[in-house]
């Protein structure tokens, strides 16, 4: 109950009842109760109160004798509380007295009200008239909690010690195997610790709840080893649990590290295995835009598969960075090695993917330029294969300009193709740097041969087109020259016609005297020279037209009728010119003779001897007048007059006036001849 005798020995109370008492159970109970106090407390001895007020003497006697076998050394006094109807005094006294020396402890029979003679009232419970408050059920519950805590904590300590000790010794594999076998304790350490703290708190308060709510000393005090034992167990538990948490942390970290390592190797193995194999099999660049686009689509599928692993790489890199920031020295080297390996493989694979993507993009651009150039060459070739049938020189010039523009565009396209091809060849030459030792010479040779073949084919096609353009250019220039010759020849005909028209309409004056007529005659000869040059120029142009037509193997549209027209106009001009010359020459002779006659003096001796001159001048004048009235007759029978009738009448009038003067002069010369015989 927690009560003590006057020697500070613990009081052990054995309440007996009317029912049959099992000695075996009582013996076990006494063994348990006597195991609770400390050795120091046991050394002070026990005072045993046997409450026999509700039992038989034989039972009391058996219990007292049993104390000799259970706790003979610790019992110093046994107080047997007798009932009011006491047993046979002689028998009881004789038995205890007789057994005193053999028992080893003193046994007294005492009434409950006189028990205070041996034990202080404050150390006795109310059952024996004392004031010590004691609740056996409360003590029992606390004891059960204590026993449970002791049992669980002891078992837990053994388990934790096994786990912790297993993690501190042996190889890494042994530690992991030990941890695997004993990793989870049978009870929750947190729960046991919580129970222990609650129990310790109650023990430190040294109180328990009685039936009347009062306060009393707890029988589970230091002397009963409860509080120190709980504290010791808690300390041990905290120590082992702390070590256990560290072991768990290390295990968790090791597990996390192993998981990271496993995932890293999964990423590395896939990227260096199936991922790299996918890239190794995709070495072609295609032979057309459609083929390159198909390869690009396939590459996008490969990139999509890689993206999933790259996402795992990002997650792993973040986890490794978090572990590195935690700063465990023993794992830093391994973590950094894993991080470096993972980064190297991922960056290398990403570089390969990017290189492949750039290569396919360059191939697509190359084939696109090649296709555009091929279409341009086809268009140029189609244009060259069509016969040229222009209407005039301007359309030929326009066609020639278009041809030159197309050829220039082809030159630009071929230059662009060479640049794209060279760039693609440069990229292919760098492909061996990420081939993982795989010989890509054969595959690259096929790509290189294809690129060079396309560029050479385009160069040959362009050269053929250039040759055809040169031929077409020469032909078109000849046609331009042909049209120009025809146009200039027609212009020469027009000019000659204009000269003929001017000759007929404006060259009508015959001059007022011989000098003026000679001037007109000289001007006419120069005028004829111009016409002759125009005619010769036209003839040369028409001859060039014939040569060009023979070179072009074609017939001219206009040269066939231009030459007859030129010859016809020239013949008309020649006839008209000859008539003009004849008239001017006649006029010169007329004016010269007339002026000579009119200037002669009558006193000259021979003036009258040459009368034939007058007849001649009259004949010339009449002939000239007759010519003025006669039209010019052309070889084709057509006729044409010089000037208008009024112009001819004016010229004839001037000649007639001069003929009148000559006639008057003649008469003057004849009059002296008539008067001389009369005189």
Automatic annotation (TrEMBL):
It comes from Pomatorhinus ruficollis (streak-breasted scimitar babbler). Gene3D superfamilies: 1.20.58.60. Keywords: Repeat. InterPro entries: CRAL-TRIO_dom, Spectrin_SESTD1. Residues 1-136 form the CRAL-TRIO domain. PROSITE patterns: CRAL_TRIO. One of its GO terms (molecular function) is phosphatidylinositol-3,5-bisphosphate binding. This is SESD1 protein. It holds the Pfam family Spectrin_SESTD1. It comes from the Eukaryota. Belongs to the SOLO family.
